[in-house]
Task: structure prediction
Amino acid sequence: MRYLKLGSSDLNASVIGMGAWAIGGGSSWGSHVDDDLAIQTIEKALDMGINFFDTAPGYGWGHSEKLLGRVIQGRRDQFIVATKCGLWWDDQRGSFFTVLEGRPIYRSLRPDTIAIEIERSLKNLNTDFIDLYQIHWPAVEPEKTPIAETMQTLTKLIDEGKVRAIGVCNVSADELQQYLDCGKVVTDQFRYSMLYREAEQEILPLCQRHGISTLTYMSLEQGLLTGKVTMDSVFEEGDFRTNAVWNPWYSPVNRRRVIDLLEGWQPLCEKLNCNLSQLVLAWTLAQDGVTHALAGARRPEQIEQNAAAADLSLDSQTLQRINQDLLEISAELAQQQSPRVLPT
Ligand SMILES: NC(=O)c1ccc[n+]([C@@H]2O[C@H](COP(=O)([O-])OP(=O)(O)OC[C@H]3O[C@@H](n4cnc5c(N)ncnc54)[C@H](OP(=O)(O)O)[C@@H]3O)[C@@H](O)[C@H]2O)c1
Result:
């Protein structure tokens, strides 16, 4: 495993982090997770040298945090725990965001909701401090808490010893700059995969300029880029993978194209003695400005494979071949996709 400090903090985090969304369960992930299997997955991550775990209160409505909290007991020092604040569903404080699994969710970075969220996360996680506390989504109108006020709230949590470092997720370059102007932010987390490369335009260069660590999410496109999804794979209604806006690659026409792309890389995998998940994660980590990739896993063998991607280095010929294929698929798919999905 390789480790890199998170921004200017002293948190030395494995470059492959375990994404703990799917283990939270819930209908968005199609089926409910066996808790024992989830715990074994976290244990396997540790065995593989992963010390970086990303969760959020919304992942299974606290369940993902609680599972991590069970494993943390007695060995807190082996974990760099990243959780989040800013999605709120207790009442209507904040600005309406979406409905998830039947619950209306609000975006709230109000000091009073963050004060409740932090205590809840500490309890769920069975700890008295959180290593990296991230805003899950930036605040929006009508109840748009000013960024300076949010940074004040988060900085106070650092002063109180409840949080060690601050991160942001899903922010625009403008918003990131404002956060940086108001205090110390060490990480930025955003969607980034070989099929979703918007961050290359502004976010990755901005993070690089400021020494901010970048935590990519959905780099496996929720399983599609592992090669396990076939044309016959069916997802339950409400599963994220049926959401055409969030997951356009799962539509039959795009899926066919992606599956063909992955099949074409089998000889590369054979040559490198790796599987597709590892090839894709190694490609992700090799991109300019990417420091850490968060890979979701529900089973020990998945995290075992994903962890090994940290030590897979791709030579320039392999990178060139993959990039050429991506350019071709990009040109074809850009005609059907929103331009923000792929770089032009
Ligand atoms: N900040 C945010 O707004 C935000 C948003 C999304 C995600 N995230 C974070 O980023 C993490 C990663 O994103 P993600 O979990 O949505 O998607 P992902 O990492 O692209 O995909 C995870 C899924 O891929 C499958 N998978 C993973 N490794 C595999 C392997 N080696 N072989 C076969 N299948 C494999 C599993 O699917 P099955 O479950 O079907 O087995 C797993 O649940 C999340 O867990 C979360 O921590 C953050």
About this structure: The chain has one domain: 3-230+275-313. The two ends are 34 Å apart (CA to CA). Residues 3-230+275-313 form a domain with the TIM Barrel fold (CATH 3.20.20.100). Residues 19-22, 29, 54, 136, 169-170, 189, 217-223, 226, 228, 277, 294-298, 302, 305-306 surround NAP (CB under 6 Å).
